Q: What sequence folds into this?
């Protein structure tokens, strides 16, 4: 490894250890690596150009729209209605509240597109309720943390848009459709773990509701769930682009939260807009810095060297893809999803394609892989939020998380080695 690559990687990981914000760690490491090759002014100019170029994409306009839509939905009473709907449908099964937790996270994650928002919205309601019903608080927190990541796969998902940019043009519509089956598979796998755990510990079940009440709860949740139909149906049907779908999602969210449910008042909108702007700024800064680092990695021939190294280890696709997954899981434990996708897609995508994997399948694989990372220590963002809500310590939920990790990893292996799970739905819709 030459001096440029060494400086880039050592500086980056050193800054991470020192708890420097990720976007600054990426930017500073990239600048120092560039300074080895050119003078200060050309180095700064080149990096600034790469950062600006990384944001110069029409597709990225969808991100602030979906962020704002998710913020409005999060404040608009959507979580409560989705939880009531799930409770009415499956609450009477063994481990009913844990199953409701998973399903609610899947539904709300699909609407908000944010694991953090899902953890906050669903966890704030479900964790106290599960504790009241006798569930172990650490198990409840582990379920919430794991289930909140399903929204990264079930569209509309901001991280799938980021991957579309990083991959060099994979269809966002195809990625959105490709995420459904794996996302639902993860949810079902987590529910199986919850079911077995509940049977083993003898958790109480809730009474079955009359059919009329079940119908009432389902009907109350339909307006919220219609957002998914509106966004995905419009994109797949060619009525509008993903960016236009984001704008439509904002309008629909406003109508629902302010006009229909009336749980968001006009006076609250400036605060929601400000919070959305802050979140968008963080995401865009990560994208800009990661784009510059990705270019620097390519300049230092790191993707080519890693590809050659992997192919020298073995010529067996099963072994190489397993190694890629293990490396990504390690990366996901320390790095946020957005920079991880932008930095490691150019490194591993060419290898995966060379082994016969489509860019579409690889995209779902890397997002599912890194979803495990955001609920894994030491950096997993949803873990800290869940622990704060559950009033427990991080080390206490690691043990109950282990079977959930195994379930998610099992789905990851299926997605990695069987392309049908990712490619069937896009093929049905001709994407």
A:
């Amino acid at each position: 490894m030459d001096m440029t690559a060494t400086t880039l990687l050592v500086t980056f990981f050193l800054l991470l250890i020192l708890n420097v914000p990720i976007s600054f760690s990426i930017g500073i490491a990239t600048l120092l690596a560039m300074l080895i090759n050119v003078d200060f002014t050309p180095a700064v100019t080149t990096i600034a150009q790469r950062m600006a170029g990384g944001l110069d994409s029409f597709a990225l306009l969808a991100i602030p729209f979906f962020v704002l839509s998710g913020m409005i939905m999060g404040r608009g009473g959507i979580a409560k209605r989705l939880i009531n709907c799930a409770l009415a449908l499956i609450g009477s099964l063994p481990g009913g509240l844990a199953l409701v937790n998973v399903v609610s996270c899947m539904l709300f994650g699909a609407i908000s597109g944010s694991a953090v928002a899902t953890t906050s919205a669903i966890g704030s309601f479900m964790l106290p309720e599960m504790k009241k019903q006798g569930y172990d608080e650490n198990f409840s927190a582990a379920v919430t943390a794991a289930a909140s990541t399903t929204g990264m796969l079930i569209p509309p998902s901001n991280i799938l848009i980021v991957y579309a940019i990083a991959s060099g043009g994979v269809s966002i519509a195809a990625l959105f459709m490709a995420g459904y089956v794996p996302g639902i598979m993860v949810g079902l796998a987590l529910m199986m773990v919850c079911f077995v755990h509940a049977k083993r510990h003898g958790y109480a079940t809730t009474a079955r509701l009359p059919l009329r009440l079940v119908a009432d709860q389902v009907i109350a949740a339909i307006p919220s769930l219609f957002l998914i139909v509106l966004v995905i149906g419009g994109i797949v049907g060619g009525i509008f682009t993903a960016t236009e779908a984001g704008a439509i999602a904002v309008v629909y969210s406003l109508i629902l939260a302010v006009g229909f449910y009336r749980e968001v008042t006009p006076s609250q909108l400036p605060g929601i807009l400000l919070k959305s702007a802050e979140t968008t700024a963080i995401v865009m800064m990560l994208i800009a810095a990661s784009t510059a680092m990705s270019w620097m990695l390519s300049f230092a021939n790191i993707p080519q060297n890693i590809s050659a190294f992997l192919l020298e280890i073995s010529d067996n696709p099963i072994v190489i893809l397993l190694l890629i997954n293990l490396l990504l899981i390690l990366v996901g434990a320390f790095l946020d999803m957005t920079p991880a996708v932008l930095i490691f897609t150019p490194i591993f995508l060419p290898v995966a394609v060379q082994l016969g994997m489509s860019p579409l399948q690889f995209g779902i694989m890397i997002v599912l892989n890194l979803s495990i990372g955001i609920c894994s220590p030491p950096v997993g963002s949803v873990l800290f939020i869940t622990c704060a809500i559950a009033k427990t310590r991080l080390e206490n939920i690691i043990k109950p998380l282990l079977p959930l990790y195994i379930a998610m990893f099992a789905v990851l292996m299926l997605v990695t080695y069987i392309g049908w799970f990712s490619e069937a739905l896009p093929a049905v819709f001709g994407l």
